[in-house]
């Protein structure tokens, strides 16, 4: 494969993973929760696209976004809010449980087989730019990610609520003593992460056209690992780590020799282990403390 | 303040203290740290709270600020019950705590820290004017407005911690060991500012370890010992060695 093409593919997969990791990292910042059930938000939003696509793209994308945001906020309201004062380990286990539970719920509602719909199939084609045959979806993914990153950056650095999210991520107790409303900030953060999950669901659904109960799982696992190697306690760490995971897997897929490419994930995780041996807290680790009580 | 002076005079509790703490108790996993503390702070008054390490000073003020739960007792601000409220609600009711240890958001700039302090602002005065006012109180903050808080010295951080809290426009300002770990000059700067805050009419409760200094600074100073108030001292007692010894080692 041409190097330029595989570079664009890797950039786009990196961007996709970065979006997943960003959603996970934002929530981790305010909650010290590595939300495993983020994958089920992606799955839910993806089902929404499949089932509503016949209503037209605008309606369908809107419904999907809504499902992502509402699912994320419901998780916070019904599960995580009650566990806020517990240890990060409890939160992690709870999110595991929630993840499996939702997978079973999807199974019961929509069956174990994948559901299909030609979601934005026009984006699945290719264009030729400067002699490179590029997937339109890859370009769209990169552009979408760039826009969303700028938007999140603007929100975090330029708005009052974003400032509150950053403060809460650094030291929740002090933020509350200054009047930052914990419930509001956490709910907002879950909502943003749900919206990001819906965008990821869109890209994934266009790519595969098929959604099953565990649709969001592989992506979430890799992005979570990425967030950890990047340094999950800082948003930028999650982002870079997630990007590197996607970028590396895509590159390994394109360039590992024929007989070895099926061990791609082994290579990715070898890289992960090497990073963690050198920088156990992650590449860009910070030193935040959080207390939510 | 009101166009119905006659009626309001009867209902406004100007006679009752601004902050009224009664039989306050705090327990950590059942173990009592504050064992029934009662005191009050009048409007415009500056009250000190001193006592040895582990006496329960921080627990007391954290309970007032809503950051730890009071297991029993009550605390009212202008007649409004504070216990049972979250910290963010207590700030909105008009009581703000500058907690022990400064607690900077290292990555946020001085200006961002100040903006955070205004999240629960209770005043109609425009924020820019209020910021100008605290910068006048702590000029160094104006000079370093774009500097990350993590790069400030301990004294500058304490100034920022107080300044951002003032932006909420509290009626009752509580400071937990504002002099902790500061150089003597930095302590002077901080207490000079506290003096001016007091003179501007804000009621202040200041927790300290340094007895003499605090007793001299405050209108009244309570001694907390093993979760109980043992003595109340007025500035005249600042140099009474006997009383000070009693205060620290119990009578
Ligand atoms: N979060 C907590 N969990 C359990 N015990 C605590 C906690 N915080 C304080 N304590 C205990 O409560 C008692 C009172 O502590 P507190 O911090 O209120 O004292 P203090 O007077 O502020 O002391 P210092 O001068 O050292 O700041 C101590 O015995 C302390 O060990
Ligand atoms: Mg203390």
Automatic annotation (TrEMBL), chain B:
It holds the Pfam family ABC_tran. This is ABC transporter ATP-binding protein. Signal peptide: none annotated. The lineage of its organism: Bacteria, Bacillati, Actinomycetota, Actinomycetes, Micrococcales. One of its GO terms (molecular function) is ATP binding. Belongs to the ABC transporter superfamily. Keywords: Amino-acid transport, ATP-binding, Nucleotide-binding, Transport. It comes from Terrabacter tumescens. InterPro entries: AAA+_ATPase, ABC_transporter-like_ATP-bd, BCAA_Transport_ATP-bd_LivF, P-loop_NTPase. Gene3D superfamilies: P-loop containing nucleotide triphosphate hydrolases. PROSITE patterns: ABC_TRANSPORTER_2 (PS50893). PANTHER family: HIGH-AFFINITY BRANCHED-CHAIN AMINO ACID TRANSPORT ATP-BINDING PROTEIN LIVF. Residues 19-251 form the ABC transporter domain.
